[in-house]
């Protein structure tokens, strides 16, 4: 069942089904678009419509109640045949002598549409068989060949170029011709998509195929469904792949356009706020920035406006393309495309020049601001001539430690490899070139007696020592070298493993002291049961003959230890000073 409608053609009413009406409307519109470029074109189209009305009357006189699409197709071929138009038959009845006489001014025949439209092929974007912008389909129509091979060739050049994208995904260390060619292909495709006209009208599609623009060909082109190229194309596996890929890329660019539009709106709001907001209200937030802003306000405003234009043009073009995709706007004309492209290129070049000059000023300002901030930061965190990070100073000062010398040391403390708790912090230094000269110590006032100093330590090379000496006594310091077990093993770890083995042999699954058992288990299981290299060392018996101040700590300075440090790092923690004669500190 088809829907019939009634149309008014030159004051006469005709019943026509909907499909036939759409075909007739496309045909008359295409002829009107063509003849409007010629003098007297409106009169020519009116004559054509009068001829169509006469043929409709003939159908009605034969008893046709509603005009069908078959009737319209037959009328289009009758009206648009070249022989009827250019050389009327002498025995043709009145009313069917063709349109040559109607297209003349009485002084001779007018040139036929075939003569007016004859010419070489023209390069258009073929939107009837597009996957993205119709560029490759247009090339295939113009130069010949299956569009599928053009698309495959483009992908081969893009992905399989030596040093191209597939290779470059794993190598960003240098720029080579491969990535340049990939980039050039993308830019060339986009530029061609902007500059190449779209084969929108039937006349454009005929010129794209190299056919004459005459009523016969126009009729054939108008009556051909625009989906025919896709319906008859290669919609197998590869065709489906290209369709999905093209759709995804196209909507990806539409998404970019929408994102650019939001960025543009945000930039306009921010720029308006910066230009209109009283500086006295915001200078206190960052005086250095606003001082730079005031000194370079003209350049900043110019750069901002240029950047907004650079964003606005592609945003507008992409959104316009989106609206034309959903039939809310007509596609841009070639002149409009070229105008936008030239404007964008000029604006981009000017913006690049302005922003490059401004970038130098910004870098100088940032370097100056950084130097001031760094100087202030170092001054605030320097104690006794040595710079500490705030967290290191807090940790060491709370425990009474003081760094006496720190050369070629990138840190004073660390965390993560304590033998029982990976969150615990401990004394630690590091230098990749074996140059560090480091001494850290603390002091305690002691009464006469015998004392024992112990500590948990580790190192990756020889020459780091735990030391102790009495203030004011002319005697050599007590020294004990830190074992160089690196960051695996260590006496503490081995003792813990041995203790667990002995415990299992003596008591089996029975645990006598859960606290000690858990501690030993944690030490034995540290670093995937490899340990962290910690050892507990004890200095020889420290004898204090009278009340005195004891200095003790760790050092890699040869003048104190008598040996150069051969490692990169050492660690120390859990210092314990015990009085041995009455077990009081």
Number of strands: 15
Q: Name the overall outline.
A: elongated
Compute the average pLDDT: 76
The biggest beta sheet reads: 6 strands, antiparallel
Strand content: 15-25%
Labels describing this entry:
15 strands, six-stranded antiparallel β-sheet, single chain, 51% helix, alpha+beta, five-stranded antiparallel β-sheet, 585 residues
Walk me through what this model shows.
51% of the residues lie in helices and 15% in strands. It is built from 20 helices and 15 strands. The strands form 4 sheets. Strands 6, 7, 9, 12, 13 and 15 form a 6-stranded antiparallel β-sheet that branches. A 5-stranded antiparallel β-sheet has the order 5-8-14-10-11. Strands 1-2 form a two-stranded antiparallel sheet.
Short description:
With 585 residues, the protein is of the alpha+beta class. The chain has 20 helices and 15 strands.
